[in-house]
Amino acid sequence: MKITNVEFVISAVRPDQYSDDALPEFALAGRSNVGKSSLINRMIMRKGLARTSSQPGKTQQLNYYRVNERVYLVDFPGYGYAKVSKVQRQQFGTMIETFLGDREPLKMVLHIIDIRHEPSKDDILMYDWLKHYEIPVCVVTTKADKIPKSQWPKQVKMIKQALGFHPADRHVLFSSETGLGRDELWAVINEAIEESNEEAAETEEVSIE
């Protein structure tokens, strides 16, 4: 996908701060320091728009990035970082649950998992939560450049088994360093947008009839 325009729009913490222009939204969820900001920067081909940090737990809001005036990437706070206070973790959980629970423009959650490690308890809870509420999900295994290519199949299989990965869900192998998976992930996003538009058109036709 050719990127012609990218804009950081807002850091939101409440529903009244969410975008209201009805563009399709794709949220990025994952544990702290899993590489969500680096993934965004690779996806939009901008080195520093999404701020990366060696300090886990730095993102504490829902960060909205508008791409090509047609889609939002929404970066969630990372979960599972022990040094974030219990109160903050509860606030993050409430904020994310509020967003995911009733957000019509949300088309899919990109569930980011480090390919080098077995999914954490929080990773599994997030995936189960998304499946329970029937929110479309694409599992993105990041940092593929950090291990030999020969280990990719074994690691991906281990991650899918730990999550209880549903065959209907999508999976993309990704590297923010090399760009592996970028085109495939944009294809997943564009396909979800097209399917949503088709469903909306069918609903409109039914209502007219």
TrEMBL record:
The UniProt keywords, alphabetically, are: Cell cycle, Cell division, GTP-binding, Magnesium, Metal-binding, Nucleotide-binding, Septation
Q: Which residues form the EngB-type G domain?
A: 22-195
Could you tell me which Pfam families the record lists for this protein?
A: MMR_HSR1 (PF01926)
Q: What InterPro entries does the annotation carry?
A: G_ENGB_dom (IPR030393), GTP-bd (IPR006073), GTP-bd_ribosome_bio_YsxC (IPR019987), P-loop_NTPase (IPR027417)
Q: Does the keyword GTP-binding apply?
A: yes
The protein's required cofactor(s) are namely: Mg(2+)
HAMAP family given for it?
A: GTPase_EngB
Identify its protein family.
Answer: Belongs to the TRAFAC class TrmE-Era-EngA-EngB-Septin-like GTPase superfamily. EngB GTPase family.
Q: What does this protein do?
A: Necessary for normal cell division and for the maintenance of normal septation.
Q: What NCBIfam families does this protein's entry cite?
A: GTPase_YsxC
Question: How is this protein named in the record?
Answer: Probable GTP-binding protein EngB
Q: What taxonomic lineage is listed for the species of origin?
A: Bacteria, Bacillati, Bacillota, Bacilli, Bacillales
